[in-house]
Design a protein that fits this description.
- The structure holds two protein chains of two kinds.
- Chain A is built from ten helices and no strands.
- Chain A is mainly alpha-helical.
- Chain A is elongated, with a radius of gyration of 21 Å.
- In chain B, helix 4 packs across helix 5 (79-103).
- Chain B has nine helices and no strands.
- Chain B is elongated and about 70 Å long.
- Chain B has one domain (15-203): Orthogonal Bundle (MetI-like fold), CATH 1.10.3720.10.
- Helix content of chain B is 80%, strand content 0%.
- Classes of the chains: A mainly alpha, B mainly alpha.
């Protein structure tokens, strides 16, 4: 039997859809574990990235972060905090926030720093204040890249929330690690399939967000390129 | 921090480091080897690229652990499993850069090469690929760094790497072991990154240096 047979057989058993620890409950838990850190990271990293892109201060730091954040092993960070803090709120929240910040920060920076200097000057020449330049010109132009950063972070957080079940968290990773511990491939495959589904859903959501949020003028320009 | 743990477990740490280098570096090189021909085809025949790019984005969204699990029925709990999965991820970051690098070659340069009598193949090898090196290297760097770091997740399905220090350290509540793993993985990844920066400089001696 292939992975999909195992996964499908397990996912479609109605018993797994009811009661405590059922599939719908773990999906909701997983979304919570992924969504909260993403939100916190966005609140910190978007303004920071926009500020660095606008002023140019600290750009060396952000540019160096662009590649090196991928070197951090998420599993290591999670178990380290689990050993120190035991099973607390911060144990999973802190590493997920830390890991979601770099892609959002780097892309927000690149988006704003990459705005055509001519456009910048035009905004200034039209009498816009610095705040207006940032919020009405630079951020809308940078929006496609800001969304790429959020998407990268979201996918990363969904994946890491799966691993977080290793230190005792709920979410879809629960099925995977309980299955591994009891040598049952069914729940392992089923959990993995659901995680993949969730990740693809996130991808689709961001494709949709891009259509809705990016200003119409920018979309047209992109198509003609 | 219990410093004495490190020398007394030197041979274990060394073995895990070697395993981690192997299952981290090899996938990035495979990824490059597959990306080059695919990227060349995608840069030339434009209709081929959009569907490939969509597929690449979807594959890259798959969490590493889920992909390892999906490969278990075919490849078992082996090194090969993790290497195949990480090769796929590397492919996803390297291929777009190969295409972007080749498409970024200015048209006048291409025309000049043609005018000097270069055929399509010679022009590709002697002019276009060398000019694309910095962009391709950018992708390769991301591929290597993330493979080395993701290799540790393979430990969760029992494939040995520096990730062993994480799972073992967690079970024994022993932070020293976890610190050693964290520092070694980050150091390995950054060392490979530096080596690739050096390779890029050697391959593009004409580039302006900041």
């Amino acid at each position: 039997m292939s992975f999909f047979n195992y996964a499908w057989d397990w996912v479609t058993q109605s018993a797994h859809w009811h009661g405590p620890g059922s599939i719908p409950q773990q999906i909701v838990a997983h979304l919570g574990y992924a969504g909260l850190p993403l939100l916190i990271a966005a609140i910190i990293a978007i303004p920071a990235g926009v500020a660095v892109g606008h002023t140019g201060r600290g750009s060396v730091f952000v540019v160096n972060l662009a590649n090196s954040w991928r070197a951090i092993p998420t599993l290591g960070l999670l178990v380290l905090l689990a050993v120190y803090l035991g099973f607390s709120f911060l144990t999973w929240l802190l590493p997920l926030v830390v890991l979601a910040i770099p892609p959002i920060l780097v892309n927000a920076y690149e988006g704003v720093a990459g705005v055509d200097p001519g456009v910048r000057d035009a905004a200034k020449g039209a009498g816009m204040t610095a705040w207006q330049q940032v919020t009405r010109v630079e951020v809308p132009i940078a929006l496609p890249l800001i969304l790429v950063g959020l998407r990268t972070a979201a996918i990363f957080v969904v994946a890491t929330a799966t691993i977080a079940a290793y230190i005792g968290l709920g979410g879809l990773g629960r099925f995977i690690f309980d299955g591994l511990a009891s040598y049952q491939y069914g729940p392992v495959a089923g959990g993995a399939l659901l995680v993949v589904g969730l990740a693809v859903l996130v991808l689709g959501l961001f494709a949709l967000l891009g259509r809705v949020l990016v200003p119409a003028g920018l979309r047209k320009q992109r198509r003609s390129e | 921090m219990m410093w004495s743990w490190i020398p007394s477990n030197g041979s274990l740490i060394w073995q895990l480091t070697r395993e981690n280098i192997y299952i981290g570096v090899v996938p990035a090189l495979y990824g490059l080897a597959i990306s080059l021909p695919l990227g060349i085809v995608a840069a030339r025949w434009r209709w081929f690229y959009p569907p490939v790019l969509t597929l690449v984005n979807v594959i890259y969204a798959i969490p590493a652990l889920a992909l390892f699990i999906a490969l278990i029925p075919t490849l078992g709990l082996t090194n090969t499993n993790v290497i195949v999965a990480l090769t796929l991820f590397s492919l996803c970051v390297i291929l777009p850069n190969v295409v972007a690098g080749l498409r970024g070659v200015p048209d006048p340069v291409r025309q000049a090469a043609t005018a000097m009598g270069y055929g399509p193949l010679r022009r590709l090898v002697m002019v276009e690929l060398p000019l694309a090196v910095p962009v391709i290297m950018g992708g390769l760097r991301v591929g290597v760094v993330s493979s080395i770091s993701l290799a540790s997740v393979g430990q969760l399905i029992g494939v040995s790497s520096l990730g062993y220090l994480f799972t073992d350290g967690e079970q024994r509540s022993f932070p020293t072991e976890i610190y050693v793993g964290l520092v070694l993985i980050i150091a390995l990844a950054l060392a490979c990154d530096l080596i690739l920066v050096g390779v890029r400089r050697a391959l593009t001696p004409w580039a302006v240096r900041a």
